[in-house]
Amino acid sequence: MKRIGVLGTGAVGTVLSDGFLRHGYEVTRGSREPAKLADWLAKAGSRARTGTFAEAAHAAEIVVLAVKGTAAEAVLDLAGADALAGKVVIDTTNPIAAVPPVNGVLRYFTSLEESLMERLQRRVQAARFVKAFSCVGNMVMVNPTLAGGPPTMFICGNDAAAKEDVRQILGQFGWETEDLGAVEAARAIEPLCILWCIPGFLTNRWEHALKLLR
Ligand SMILES: NC(=O)c1ccc[n+]([C@@H]2O[C@H](COP(=O)([O-])OP(=O)(O)OC[C@H]3O[C@@H](n4cnc5c(N)ncnc54)[C@H](OP(=O)(O)O)[C@@H]3O)[C@@H](O)[C@H]2O)c1
Fold it and tell me: Residue 124: what are its φ and ψ, rounded to 5°?
């Protein structure tokens, strides 16, 4: 059984924590204010815990980073580089700027020359970051049942073994995995969230995902 530390109290943190628990993992969720997770903890069962970002990172073998993009670097600092060193960090974050979308098109605080995950990997060099779950909405993150069959999760990162761990989790969660290479590929994967959101903003339907066909 693997111990997962989920940093984040938003929808992604909740959906992925519940998914990991359903698949038999232990989950510790982290927050600046762990008390806000009391209702979730009361229903989550005996393999669930809560704590600070640092406690959740310490408790984990695999860490999931599911916090606001603008706060992601600060949350790594709160978790602590020592607690993250050597661990797989599944990076779900997107660099969404604190400004409204334009005609359904989100705006980012990064550029096409530098992704958020590259900043995170530089900030904690000893952690093994893998971009995953960033290009799809939380409502279809765990075992999606879409008419078009299993969708594709685009991942990247510098550590092959870390990506293999994430590929296995994605398989359990009902995804095909497309490995796009090293951390720089996050410059392409992070903007897929902009693409994924547009049909949602335009039609108010959010149950879709991306698939790579050959
Ligand atoms: N929502 C989706 O469907 C979706 C899909 C794909 C990817 N994503 C990405 O996944 C990430 C999480 O999204 P979300 O919608 O679940 O939640 P969110 O509202 O973007 O983030 C909530 C988390 O951010 C932390 N946070 C916010 N401001 C902070 C600050 N100043 N300092 C430290 N921590 C701060 C909060 O910490 P506390 O618990 O301490 O308040 C909380 O845990 C985002 O980067 C988002 O772009 C979201």
Answer: -125, 85
Q: Does ligand 1 lie within 6 Å of residue 200's CB atom?
A: no
pLDDT category at 1 given cuts 50, 70, 90 is low
- The strand pairing partners of 105, in sequence order, are 102
Q: What angle do CA 135, 204, 154 make, to 5 degrees?
A: 10
Nearest to 186 by CA among 127, 133, 123: 133
Q: Is 94 in the pocket of ligand 1 (CB under 6 A)?
A: yes
- What is each CA distance from 143 to 40, 74, 112, 157, 176, in whole angstroms? 21, 31, 31, 23, 11
What letter represents residue 110's amino acid?
T
Helix (H, G, I), strand (E, B) or coil at 32: coil
pLDDT at 132 over 90: yes
Query: At 199, phi and psi to the nearest 5?
Result: -60, -35
